[in-house]
User: What shape does this take?
Amino acid sequence: KGPHMPKHRVVGGVIVTTPAAVFDNYTPAKHLIDDHEWVTIRPTAIRACTAADYATPASALQCISTVTHYLAWAHRQGLSLDLEAVFHPDHVERFVAILSRDRAPETVGTRRGYLRRVGRACTKKAPWPAPARPYAANITLQPPYNSDEVKALWDAARAQYNERRTRVAQTLLCLGLGAGLKPGEMLQVTAAHHVGHHPQGERLVVILLEDRVVPVLTEYAPLLVDLCHRYPDGPLIGRHNPASKDPLGVLRAHVEWPSSLEFKPARLRTTWMVSVLTNGVRVSEFQRISGTASAKALEAAAAFVPERLEGEEYLFTAAGLGSGAR
Assistant: This one.
């Protein structure tokens, strides 16, 4: 059998199976937050995280870790630890801007997501905007996977029961996370006809679809090229029945994904969208490579794209002065 991600976590040397137990046993690293400071901020951290109502120990642990480091920063800034005061959107964005200096965009986006959810849940007066509706009522856009969830998916893909399942899992992740392909497009890609290096730049791997050319994110390109070398004939994802009602569903039904998260190909595509938009492509370029004509996709993905708020860098960029120009 393939791997199942555990539903428990070890926190403070104790095996925990509920968010409440996570909060009871969590202690931050002493070299980051000393005991005296932790005593001061712990009650606020637990109240805030409890209000956010996370369902699993894994998400609760991410929440309490993120909130604890935020509250430590706020306390050192001399901010009040009253929930309404400290979980103000402006304070949260200042903290996130500092994180952006030395952390990957997807990590920063994940931290922002936790703090926004906590802020909305534990305050009544703070001016938090309502969560953006992902799409129009008749269209749904799946939320992106965060960095920890992406890692769990890759760990599972590498630990499948046999080569066939590993091939399907890795191809799904390469084409979804690396190029944002739609489920039907994943079935059509072949090494011989669709994947290659761009003639103007050997480092750029692209996928040639019927209606567009899609650049592959550099972190996924080497594995995609390797898959093409290993499976040069037929669909890259493997043999399937194109006449089936849901051929991709049949293929992925045999893959063992982490039980702690729901696997959806559409979420792979949204995760790719956020990565591409974070890289700074223009609206017209995004629509060209994503095959998305509707602006609804942009509207939905925007909530997950990190903002360049430190020093109001985005204002300089928008004015044509370059990033951070003074």
